[in-house]
Amino acid sequence: VTSINSGQVFLWEEIGSIWYGIYGNHVLRLSQAEDGPELSSFPELEKSEQRVFRLDDDLSSIFAEITRDPLVRRLVSRYPGLRLLRQQPEQCIFSFVCANNTNISMIRRMLRNLTRKFGKAIKVDGIDFFTFPAAQDLDSASIDELRSCGVGYRAKAIKAVARSIVNADLDLDMLKRSSYFKAKEELLRIYGIGDKIADCVLLFSLDKLEAFPLDIWISRAVAKYYSWAYDPRFSDKLTHSQYQVVSEGMRNYFGRYAGYAQQYLYYYMRHKAGMKW
DNA sequence: GTACAGGCAGTAT
DNA sequence: ATACTGCCTGTA
């Protein structure tokens, strides 16, 4: 492991030669020991390596399926260390609510501000970190307190999500056991959660590896390299019904691990555009 | 001052 | 179903 892609996980940072990341209530510490990478968590998190780095995924099956596509086959060999990480579900949904209509550095700023204002301080290696706030803490915050973290109009959606979690209208752990379609339907009921945010939460935290989030970068990639799945009348901003058509096309084409293919395409498009997260 | 980042809700047709 | 608008904020 040499780097963490902050386009996927926003609250990781490299200090010295050690990577630190926030996973809900926990601070993760990733260092390079002589005998390979070492992950520790504060406080202790059961099977953190397996959980966070998705060591339970059968990568040979996954690669066998997604590399049936020639472009993805090239990208898998070009970016040999690229992986999906598993995020803590609540942190993930609030993170992608903040990701609405803005860029990655702004998302990181919003999330850092939320952790400083509503999270708990934990010292690791003498450095102060802040854990991710609980839904309860965000629910009891006022809109103005949330807005003071720089989240702007997203404050209303943050409150809506927090409220749904606190009153058990939205049970993310239960959605882990639902089908992709059922879980997506549940997420779409919440104010501020649309197709793209729902698919990101499903892929990055709820183990729905067939989810294929279509953001603007991936839309362009599909229009360019998989144009048979992309009606030329569609712009790169898709309406709900257009999104359904295109994402279904991609899920059918790439199969049950379409989300892994999406990650390679996303990284490729950003890399090609010279973006540096 | 303006353009840009770029997903969702809301309204009109 | 599509077409269009407004939206916080910070940087270029």
Highlighted features:
277 residues, alpha+beta, four-stranded antiparallel β-sheet, two-stranded antiparallel sheet, 14 helices, DNA-binding
Structure overview:
- There is one protein chain.
- By secondary structure, this protein is of the alpha+beta class.
- The chain is 48% helix and 12% strand.
- The protein is built from 14 helices and six strands.
- The chain has helices spanning 48-52, 59-66, 70-78, 89-98, 104-118, 135-140, 143-147, 154-166, 172-175, 180-188, 195-204, 216-225, 240-254, 258-272, and strands spanning 12-15, 18-23, 26-33, 36-42, 121-124, 127-130.
- A four-stranded antiparallel sheet has the order 1-2-3-4, with no helix packed on it. A two-stranded antiparallel ribbon has the order 5-6.
- α4 (89-98) packs antiparallel against α8 (154-166), α4 packs antiparallel against α11 and α10 (180-188) packs across α11.
- The longest helix is centred in the middle third of the chain and has 15 residues, at 104-118.
- The protein is globular, with a radius of gyration of 18 Å.
- The two termini are 17 Å apart.
- It binds a DNA duplex (13 and 12 nucleotides) through α5, α8, α11 and α13.
